[in-house]
Design brief:
Blueprint: H1 2-15, H2 18-122, H3 124-127, H4 130-135, H5 140-149, H6 181-225
Helix pairs in contact: 2-6
Length: about 230
């Protein structure tokens, strides 16, 4: 390459004067300087672009690593939540089964009380004979007060604050009511049976609600305590 340039220079030197040679030399020097400047600027631009590209790559890698770490952290918390929720659900189901079994026993007791009351009613004539009915006079005041006690749970009764003796006055006359003793016993036995049966039912369902609610609340609280939060 150098040989060719020298040959060209020799040929040009033979054809041109020193003045033109100097001018040509200056043009060549200027062109070389422009070329070197261009190469320098291009190299600097390429280097800067490479650095900028590397920054973008590093930022992308950082975002990827952060996303992977967040996913692993969320998955670990989700797995813990899933296991805890499953265990809490199993405990809740076991508690509900235990409560339901206990309530079923109470409801069976209520049914047994009703059946027992029916059996007792059949024996009223055996324990309170017609002779006993004749020997015992039930006063009208007794019947009135007994009936008034049945009004206590009504809207117009004592539950609303009304005086049980207000309204129609009780006639305390001491006269016979005409209600035989056997009837009084039959009504009392029936009422007692119904009252105790309903008491068992009411208490049973009250217990069912309280214990089931406690079991459900416990399960919800256990799962909520480790509930995963999605990374932002």
């Amino acid at each position: 390459m150098l040989t060719i340039l020298l040959a060209i220079w020799k040929y040009v030197g033979e054809k041109l004067s020193l003045k033109w040679l100097a001018a040509l030399l200056m043009v060549l020097v200027a062109a070389g300087g422009c070329y070197l400047s261009y190469k320098y600027i291009a190299t600097e631009a390429a280097l800067k672009q490479k650095l900028d590209d590397q920054k973008l790559i590093d930022a992308a890698n950082h975002d990827r690593d952060t996303a992977v770490a967040n996913f692993k952290q969320y998955k670990a918390s989700y797995d813990l939540w899933s296991i805890t929720a499953h265990q809490a659900n199993q405990e809740m189901v076991a508690s509900l089964k235990e409560t339901n079994s206990k309530i079923e026993a109470q409801l069976n007791d209520a049914r047994y009380r009703a059946i027992t009351a029916e059996g007792l009613l059949k024996n009223v004539p055996k324990f309170v004979t017609p002779k006993d009915d004749l020997a015992c006079t039930i006063p009208s005041g007794f019947v009135q007060l007994y009936n008034r006690s049945l009004e206590l749970g009504t809207a117009s009764g004592y539950a609303s604050g009304r005086d049980p003796f207000a309204g129609s006055p009780l006639a305390v006359t001491g006269t016979a009511s005409g209600v035989p003793l056997s009837t009084v016993l039959s009504v009392s036995l029936y009422n007692h049976g119904v009252a105790l049966s309903w008491r068992d039912v009411a208490l049973g369902w009250q217990t069912w609600y309280v214990e089931n609610k406690a079991a459900v609340d416990k399960a919800i609280a256990a799962a909520k305590a480790v509930e995963p939060v999605a990374p932002k």
